[in-house]
């Protein structure tokens, strides 16, 4: 008897399950999943499109990421400045510069669509052009560096230069034996702003392969520079390797004695020297990030300065970097208020990080950098000296990052 009742219960349970499955499968009232659509950031609701003629389907490749310039329009209002990004790279740098472009586009340029100039001492190949064009929201331009800008000048003693490289190699000085690195430093110091492609622009933002931007940048940095009468800017500063520039400051003093008219009042000598200009303290702005004014670099003052240093031979007889060369020029030939520190541009270039000081800013601008990695208040940084030179209060909370 007990067994019969147990079987009846199983049968009744099975019938109930079948009835429930029938109603679920036949119901017409259960809505289908409605996933959000992702339209252009400008138009919340996409405009209806007419049906496509089947014969035109072959003319619209569905997988092309950047088809005939049909990228989303800039999302920020207002006129654009006459400005460009500029990158010195080789074909082998493609995938590292691709990472940098993604950071710049996602954090800044998708809002503004500025152009990008790529420069190379060789011809760019089709793959480099295709990939970078697909990633950049503005126009891309590709230029080859003139041979005479990427070779030893005729006044350089080749034997002396070769001996220096060998000595630096033995001392294990970074890039000490590299010829191409020396050409790069000389080119960035005195020629990139004179390339025909760059002559179309007034402002530049230098971007290197493998950099990262950690925070959203919601305003036009070029417009900020122009409206606030800034001519040079930085995010990281530090001391230069002493072994690479033993006679640089002597060459600078020779220049200033010959051209005192190029040294302005109210400059940043205090950032560069602890004794009023007698010696150099080796502080410089790290030039792998720069936003600056091209007209200043093309000025007679800067050209005279570069020509003087170039003929001193230190790019090849030592290993002068473009960072101290640019920094000393800005420190002497610009008023101190014409140099700007972008605390709000979070930036990484191996091995240093600039993470904005101030939690409120980092949260508001979706920053993903660790403030503990911030280099600004490290003992090897010169950023505190910049604040002191300009009589500025350090950002709230900087003490926690020392």
TrEMBL record:
Q: Which SUPFAM superfamilies match?
A: Nucleotide-diphospho-sugar transferases
Q: Where does the record locate the signal sequence feature?
A: 1-29
Quote the biased-composition stretches of kind Polar residues, using this chain's numbering: 57-66
Annotated Gene Ontology cellular components are: Golgi apparatus; membrane
Keyword Signal on this protein? yes
Q: Which UniProt keywords apply?
A: Glycosyltransferase, Signal, Transferase
Q: Which residues form the active site?
A: 290 (nucleophile)
Q: Name one Pfam family in it.
A: Glyco_transf_15
Q: Has keyword Glycosyltransferase?
A: yes
The record, for Gene3D superfamilies, names: Spore Coat Polysaccharide Biosynthesis Protein SpsA, Chain A (3.90.550.10)
Q: Name one GO molecular function term.
A: alpha-1,2-mannosyltransferase activity
**Gene Ontology biological process terms, A to Z:** cell wall mannoprotein biosynthetic process; protein N-linked glycosylation; protein O-linked glycosylation
Q: Where is this region: Disordered?
A: 38-78
Q: Indicate the family of this protein.
A: Belongs to the glycosyltransferase 15 family.
Q: What is this protein called?
A: Glycosyl transferase
Q: Source species, please?
A: Polyplosphaeria fusca
């Amino acid at each position: 008897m007990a067994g019969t009742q147990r079987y009846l219960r199983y049968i009744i349970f099975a019938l109930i399950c079948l009835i429930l499955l029938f109603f679920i499968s036949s119901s017409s009232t259960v809505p289908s999943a409605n996933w959000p659509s992702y339209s252009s950031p400008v138009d919340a609701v996409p405009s209806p499109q007419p049906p496509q003629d089947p014969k035109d389907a072959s003319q619209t490749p569905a997988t092309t990421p950047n088809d005939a310039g049909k990228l989303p329009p800039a999302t920020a209002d207002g006129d654009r400045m006459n400005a460009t990004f500029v990158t010195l790279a080789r074909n082998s740098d493609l995938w590292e510069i691709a990472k940098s472009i993604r950071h710049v586009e996602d954090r800044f340029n998708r809002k503004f669509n500025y152009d990008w100039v790529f420069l190379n001492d060789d011809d760019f190949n089709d793959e480099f052009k295709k990939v970078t064009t697909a990633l950049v929201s503005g126009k891309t331009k590709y230029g080859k560096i003139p041979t005479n800008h990427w070779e030893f000048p005729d006044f350089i003693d080749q034997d002396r230069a070769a001996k220096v490289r060998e000595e630096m190699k033995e001392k294990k000085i970074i890039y000490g034996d590299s010829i191409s690195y020396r050409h790069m430093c000389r080119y960035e110091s005195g020629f990139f702003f004179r390339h025909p492609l760059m002559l179309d622009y007034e402002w530049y933002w230098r971007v290197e392969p493998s950099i990262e931007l950690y925070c959203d940048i919601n305003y036009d940095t070029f417009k900020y520079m122009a409206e606030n009468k800034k001519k040079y800017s930085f995010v990281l500063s530090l001391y230069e390797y002493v072994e690479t520039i033993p006679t640089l400051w002597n060459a600078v003093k020779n220049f200033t004695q010959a051209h005192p008219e190029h040294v302005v009042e109210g400059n940043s000598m205090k950032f560069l020297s602890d004794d009023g200009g007698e010696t150099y303290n080796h502080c410089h702005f790290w030039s792998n990030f720069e936003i600056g004014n091209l007209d200043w670099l093309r000025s007679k003052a800067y050209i005279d300065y570069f020509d003087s240093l170039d003929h001193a031979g230190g790019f090849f007889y030592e290993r002068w970097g473009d960072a101290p060369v640019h920094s000393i020029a800005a420190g002497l030939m610009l008023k101190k208020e014409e140099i700007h520190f972008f605390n709000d541009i979070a930036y990484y270039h191996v091995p240093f990080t600039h993470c904005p000081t101030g939690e409120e800013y980092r949260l508001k601008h979706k920053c993903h950098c660790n403030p503990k990695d911030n280099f600004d208040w490290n003992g090897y940084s010169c950023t505190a000296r910049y604040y002191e030179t300009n009589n500025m209060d350090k950002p709230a909370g900087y003490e926690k990052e020392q």
